Amino acid sequence: MTGEPRETELLVVGSGIAGCAAALAGARAGASVTLATKATRPEESTSYWAQGGIAVSRGDAEQFKRDIIAASDGLADETAVDVLVESADEAVEDVLVETLGVDFDGDDGHEYAREAAHSEPRILHVDAATGKHLLGPFMSHLESHDDVEILADTAALELVTAEGRVHGAMLEQNGEWAPCLAGATVLATGGVGACYGRTTNPPTAAGDGVAMAALAGADTADMEYVQFHPTAFAGEDGDDRGTFLLSEAVRGEGALLRNADGERFMPDYHEDAELAPRDVVARAVRAERERTGGVSLDVGPVDFEAEFPGLASACRDRGVDIEAGIPVAPAEHFLCGGVAVDTEGRTSLDQLYAVGECARTGVHGANRLASTSLLEGLVWGLRAGEAAAGNEPVAVEVPELRDSDPSLPDSFAEEKFIRLRRVMDDYVGIERTPSDLDRAAGVLRRLKGEIDAYIRTRTSRSLYELRNACIAALLITRAARENETSRGCHHLVEEAAADAD
Ligand SMILES: Cc1cc2nc3c(=O)[nH]c(=O)nc-3n(C[C@H](O)[C@H](O)[C@H](O)COP(=O)(O)OP(=O)(O)OC[C@H]3O[C@@H](n4cnc5c(N)ncnc54)[C@H](O)[C@@H]3O)c2cc1C
């Protein structure tokens, strides 16, 4: 231990919408809350980048439920979906509108958008940058809350456990680490973008919560269902970490996908062409990129500058000739599975909760309906924060983390991350075969062995992130190998077909 030990009733790890909601609910229930987050700014949470908005039921929970279950390829857990759709309107009104004062678009803040696979207009939004307008006010609200202490730029490295119960986490700040003992712990660490070469997630999304929970013995589920967005900006330099989205809305307004030969190809893949389900478009874009060398989004049919000024300026900043077409490629976007939880966010370990993208609530099944994950984070964050309040921390023995080994170069983690991402891109991406998954599992197991050996002698945030990403990658790979049915965003192909691509 090199830093100051802490004690708190409720430790929340992560400051996206799910962590903020858990902290708020915990404090409302009377708990002293410590919110530890790697983020130094709201931009370092995926929630900040949410564009489309947050879905609500608008009084018709049944129809909303049907849409979610259809999008999940029939795999969503009905009980979890009931919780989501029945809590939606009140959670949004109470927390976002009344507590945070979010001013949704529309004269009275009730202009509802309709997105792909929603049968009704039911998405509340702000300026096509909804996450930014939710997360900034949420963080400010918590910063001024007497019962919430926010520890920014602070990473949870691993959980403190004793006899099947979780007692907080080891926290690292400025290179120093110490235990934060907690009556209950809520993981809200977001997704797994760091496991893939091209992702829409910020770099903080390294699968930390899923990995820490799994290492402590918690159950995970549905890890094979990793959603790829079909139209992320494709940079030329090959560095597509934190790429930006050209959302469905652009195709909804009439933009067309063309391959490198200038041909529009989506009508050959699906009757709904550019508006086909996300996983179908993602596979088609991948195939055409491999076949012809590139895919671009032709925004000629759209008044792009007027309707999507933010995207137009992001393209110009990267030197894109918009009239010639915007280069796009699929990118890892969202993890449907995660730490298995009940309707209050309880994991299989005593006093450990998980919420938001790192949790598997059962709402998404094999695929996610657009604009439901902010809502899921909000609803489960509130429920878990309330359920987890009221527990005193207990003094237990904490893990002994080792001092720095100066012989380990700083570049170690970055180099191994490159290897990890290559494996996931090549073998555990949009299309999978059993032999590729076996190959990936072998490489990842060896990589984890190397990382574990270093972690025995050195404690650093980047090394722990690497270990967590490697564990998350192994969980995805194993779950994909065990599931022999293509469904939603888990898509298996014949060995020969994959080789021919
Ligand atoms: C570009 C984009 C657009 C999207 N648009 C929408 C949309 O319109 N509507 C919608 O519903 N969903 C959308 N999504 C999905 C949605 O934004 C995310 O699923 C959701 O915001 C996840 O929230 P979260 O709180 O679980 O995680 P995050 O918002 O990612 O927050 C995770 C937090 O955990 C912290 N953290 C991680 N590991 C640690 C650790 N070890 N220690 C301490 N802190 C840690 C991070 O710093 C971060 O603060 C979009 C996603 C992307 C990428």
Automatic annotation (TrEMBL):
Residues 10-374 form the FAD-dependent oxidoreductase 2 FAD-binding domain. The lineage of its organism: Archaea, Methanobacteriati, Methanobacteriota, Stenosarchaea group, Halobacteria. GO terms for molecular function: L-aspartate oxidase activity. InterPro entries: FAD-dep_OxRdtase_2_FAD-bd (IPR003953), FAD/NAD-bd_sf (IPR036188), Fum_R/Succ_DH_flav-like_C_sf (IPR037099), Fum_Rdtase/Succ_DH_flav-like_C (IPR015939), NadB (IPR005288), Succ_DH/fumarate_Rdtase_cat_sf (IPR027477). Residues 419-491 form the Fumarate reductase/succinate dehydrogenase flavoprotein-like C-terminal domain. This is L-aspartate oxidase. It comes from Natronomonas pharaonis (strain ATCC 35678 / DSM 2160 / CIP 103997 / JCM 8858 / NBRC 14720 / NCIMB 2260 / Gabara) (Halobacterium pharaonis). Belongs to the FAD-dependent oxidoreductase 2 family. NadB subfamily. Its cofactor is FAD. The keyword Transcription does not apply. Pathway: Cofactor biosynthesis; NAD(+) biosynthesis; iminoaspartate from L-aspartate (oxidase route): step 1/1. It holds the Pfam family Succ_DH_flav_C.
